Amino acid sequence: MIKKAAAGYAGWLCANGIVAPEKNKIYAYGMELVLSGLVNVLSVLLISILLFHPVDGLLFLAAFIPLRTTAGGYHANSHLSCNLVFLGTFIVLEGLGYWLQEYCTVHLYLTIAVISLVTLLILSPSEAKNKPLTPERRRRNRRRSLILGGLNLAIGIILIWGLQVPTPWCTSYYLGVIAASISMWAAQIKERMCVQ
After folding, report:
1. Residue 196 has pLDDT above 60, yes or no
2. pTM for this one?
3. 58 and 124 share a domain?
C-alpha cells in the first residue's frame, strides 16, 4: 500500500512536469520512506491517544527518533513488518513502563541512559548493508549519537536529584531511549544470523 501510494505520487509529479521522468524511481523510493515513517509516528500517537496518554507517545518518539536516525538500527524486510515491529515494541515497552513506575525507582532512568550510552559506544552507527555510510557520514552520525547518549545520561542524573518517584513522562522518554538501543542490538543479531 505504501509502495503504491509513493509510486502514484511520484508518477503525478512526473506527469505534471514537477520532476523529470528519469527521477521517478528516486522520488518514489523517497516518498516510500517518508510514508513509512509517517505511519510509524501516527501509529504510536494513535495508540497513545487511545490509552489516554498522548504525551507519552510524543516523549517516546522524541527520544527514539533522534537516536535511531543518527545511531542506526534494525531494518525490517518490508514496510509492513517495520511498522508492526515498531508498534509492537512501543506497546510492549509502554506496558512495561506502567509496571516499572509501580515497582522501580528513578535510578531506572540512569540505568537506561548508561545502557544506551554503552550500546552507542559499541555499535554506533549501526548501518544497513543496503545503505552504507560514507566515512564522513559515519563519523558525524557517531558523534551526534554519542552527544545524544551523553545528554540522556546528564538528564538521568538530574532526574535522580530532582525526582523522588518515577513519572510517566520521564518513563516514556527513557523507554524511547531503550527502544533505540534494542533496535541497534536487533540489527546486530539479524546481521549475524544472515551471515551464518
Report:
1. no
2. 0.87
3. yes
